[in-house]
Amino acid sequence: MIKKGIGRQIVLNYFIIVFVTLFMVEIIFSLAIRVYYYDTIYNHMYTHSTWASDFFQKFVRLSAERDPDYFTEMLRTFELDNTELMILNLKGDVKASSNAFQADKAIQTSDVLQAAAGGVGKWIGRQTSTGEMVMAVSTPLQVRGENRYIVRFVTSLEAVNSNLTKLTLLSTAVCLAVLALVTLFSIGLANSIVKPINNIRAVSAQMARGKFDARIKGDYKYELGELASTLNYMAEEIVRSNQIKDEFISSISHELRTPLTGIKGWSETLTMGGFDPEETKLGMGIISKETDRLIGLVEEMLDFSKLQQNEMKLVIGRVNLKELLQETMLNVWAKAEQRGIQIKLDDKTLQPVTVVGDGNRLKQIFLNLVDNAIKFSHENSWVHLVISRAEPGQVLVEVTDTGIGISEEHLNKVKDRFFQVNNQGGGTGLGLAITQQLVELHHGDMDIHSELGVGTTVAVKLPLAEPEDEAQLADGNGNGDLA
Predict the structure, then answer these.
(1) What is the rounded CA–CA span in Å between residue 128 and residue 122?
(2) Taking burial as the number of CB atoms within 10 A of a residue's CB, which of 333, 375, 420, 427 is the most buried?
(3) What span, in angstroms and rounded, lies between the C-alpha atoms of 431 and 163?
């Protein structure tokens, strides 16, 4: 007995469909073969009865009609094998018969009554005397256009019915054999589906319990193969995400510990007193710098959390993109100067470029991109910012460096959260993930093109401000959420 489940349902559905189909075919076949045999017998007797009627009309004379030997001749001429031929009057009385046994009373079956009325009658039923199933065909015999007698052929259907029963039993046996084969086939088909599903389910249960090293093994085809591949890929991604998360925790712990150690050390040192103003100023400067670093790390994690929960609120306004990039360059100028890196801005639009968005968040986008360009550039190199028109209604900002570049292996992952190409470089690995989402919040696109050892170009497309945006900003006092 197949236990409840998809396998049992498949077998049951196949069984019901095939059973109903074979049952209908069996009924149609039985009826068709019965009708075929019965019609063949009827047509044969009908043809001979028609010949007998035509013969009677053409050659019978008034004198012959009264001649009792004529009926005997007629019986001998039109007699059929295994068939009784009878000549009746219109009342059903037997005048002559090829059977030695004469009926003791008039025959009043439906075929005789129809023939007496001038038509050809057919009757299937059981004879009263013998109890066997017979078919009778009766045709009127006319004299001078008037019905006088009835010629009646009667044949037994017992042999035919016996053959029909045998054919029915044989076809039923064939149907049962087909049904058995289909059932076995459906069981095999169900097992071929259920076994992989059970395997996938077992491995999925292991994954649900945290065993992400478990993998679905087997060369499954079609949807099952795709499902197995998807689950294996999911497990690999979870393992990778856990590894990245662990690396992030380790990295962020180090990032937080370093400034905290500096703050604590200088705080304890300054608390002891006895320092001249210059040393005190140096210590306070280090404390301030490390505090800003801590604040930056915390704000980065808070921004990422808000973006993940769709809670980031933007203060919308009209932003002059060139002025914003110039401010960004000023913010990183000191850092670039320390490494001898030149920052260039090239405006190819030759006109003011205005976008609608949150100025602080847009500045955060480009500040992060330019800061990364400086961070991964060689000393005494350059970082190039280019503003140009892209597609109609869009502006393109490209940040290009001649730094270490990114390998093709890592290029598709650099925008993933917690991912860092160089774990020794510090940071949370959230910068580009946050930048990507901020660009999308401004209905823009960000693409990264890089070649290892040559440099990297980050292209940001943003929609230009339309004239109607100014009216909307005026009505809304320049504040709102950009969704």
Answers:
(1) 17
(2) 420
(3) 89
Cα 135 to chain centroid, rounded:
60
| C-beta separation of 138 from 112 below 8 A | yes
Per-residue pLDDT 10s for the chain (483 aa) are 566 777 888 888 888 999 999 999 999 999 999 999 999 999 999 998 888 887 777 665 544 444 555 677 777 778 888 888 888 888 888 888 887 666 667 888 999 999 998 899 999 999 877 788 999 999 998 877 788 889 999 999 999 999 999 999 999 999 999 999 998 888 888 888 888 888 888 998 988 888 888 888 888 888 888 888 999 999 888 887 787 777 667 666 766 777 788 778 878 777 777 677 787 788 788 888 778 777 777 776 776 666 666 767 778 889 999 999 999 899 888 888 888 999 999 988 778 888 988 888 898 889 889 988 898 888 889 999 999 987 788 899 999 998 888 877 767 766 665 556 655 455 556 678 778 888 888 889 998 888 888 888 999 999 888 765 444 444 444 444 433
Could you tell me the pTM of the whole model?
A: 0.49
What domains can be seen in the chain, in order of their start residue?
6-162 (3.30.450.20), 237-308 (1.10.287.130), 317-475 (3.30.565.10)
